[in-house]
Amino acid sequence: MKRQWIVEAQHAQIRIDDFAYQHGMSRKTLKDIKLRGDILVDNVHRTVRYLLQPGEVVTFLYPNEINQMKAVNIPLQIIYEDDYLLVVHKPKGLPCIPTKAHPYYTLANALTYYYQQIHLPSTVHLVNRLDKETAGLLIVAKYRDIHDCMMKDFQHIYRQYQAHVHGRVEQGTIRLPIYCEGQGMTRIIDERGKDSCTHYKCLDYKQDTSLVEFVLETGRTHQIRVHMKAIGHPLIGDELYGDGQGIFDLESVMVAFQHPVTKQIKVIKKGNKNVSL
Questions:
Q1: Which pTM value belongs to this model?
Q2: How far apart are CA 13 and CA 51, in angstroms?
Q3: I want to staple 157 with a disulfide (CB 3.0 to 4.6 A). Which of 62, 177, 226, 257 is the partner?
Q4: What is the DSSP code (8-state) at residue 52?
């Protein structure tokens, strides 16, 4: 990856390292570029002590990332892609990252295969994650520095979900801490847990079942499932937090965020409806 800027008048006589920090680059990233990448000013190598002049073009060449994950040819549904980011639609039943139970059949393995096909020398950086049984939109940063930029402001990434739940719900906000006790997958509401916030509202109600829209302020494992159980409206089919058989329809249907490079607001919805603001 490379990032490039034309130096403006207000940056005259500024050192390259200070220029980089002002543009959001971390000290760790700049160190990696110094050791394994390159810094060019008008296509000439320069050190970070070089004083920039207006009109010069400064280019940071990032080092290649080493991806040692096994590449697996799993079909990817790419909803949005540019030089820095992907948004994919993860199918239900596909884990995000390898585990003992699923060492190779994961989204990360699928992305590794795709990266090889497009000759992208990078590791896999998931910005948000979805539980194995949750489908929908998931943001992937193509490079570590882009991932770091996104994670600095993670709470400002808008994430909207939908699912059917038992009973009639209206609209509200759940602020209850979620805690993981022991090594199991089940989460509970407990004051020892992490602060968690879920906004919800009913979109439709039929036959004692509500179609509910959820917006997350936090991203805890099983957050929506745990919170809806806590208020007496577990997801239809949820075996872990309800009385179902393990088949539920929780889906990430929209994500919105400020692009870390272009600074545009990207709104990406289920069904390939993408908007830049």
A1: 0.88
A2: 5
A3: 257
A4: P
More confident residue, 183 or 111: 111
3-state secondary structure 203-240: EEEECCEEEEEEEECCCCCCHHHHHHHHCCCCECCCCC
- How is 171-197 classified by DSSP, letter by letter? EEEEE--EEE-TTSS-EEE-TTSB--E
CA distance 89 to 75: 11
Cβ within 8 Å of residue 262, ≥6 positions away: none
Task: Kindly report each contact of residues 200-209 with a partner whose C-beta sits within 8 Å and lies 24 or more positions away, as own/partner.
Answer: 200/169, 200/171, 200/172, 200/173, 200/174, 200/228, 201/170, 201/171, 201/172, 202/168, 202/169, 202/170, 202/171, 203/162, 205/168, 208/166, 208/167, 208/168, 209/164, 209/165, 209/166, 209/167, 209/236
Please indicate whether residue 148 is annotated as part of the active site.
no
Give the CA radius of gyration of the chain.
22
Closest CA to 161 of 209, 205, 216: 216
58: tokens are 């400064």
The DSSP bridge partners found for residue 189 are: 178
pLDDT tens for 238-276 read 999 998 887 899 999 999 999 999 999 999 998 765 666
Task: Say which amino acid occupies 158.
Answer: Y
Tens digit of pLDDT for each residue in 236-245? Answer: 999 999 988 8
Report residue 29 as tokens.
């990233």
What is the Cβ-side half-sphere exposure of residue 10, based on CA atoms within 13 angstroms?
Answer: 1
Q: Where is 40: in which H helix or E strand? A: strand 38-41
Q: Choosing from 82, 83, 131, 148, which is the catalytic residue?
A: 131
Q: How far is CA 209 from the centre of its chain?
A: 30
pLDDT at residue 93, as a whole number: 93
Q: Which tens digits make up the pLDDT trace of 97-125?
A: 998 889 999 999 999 999 999 999 999 99
Q: Which amino acid is at 180?
A: C
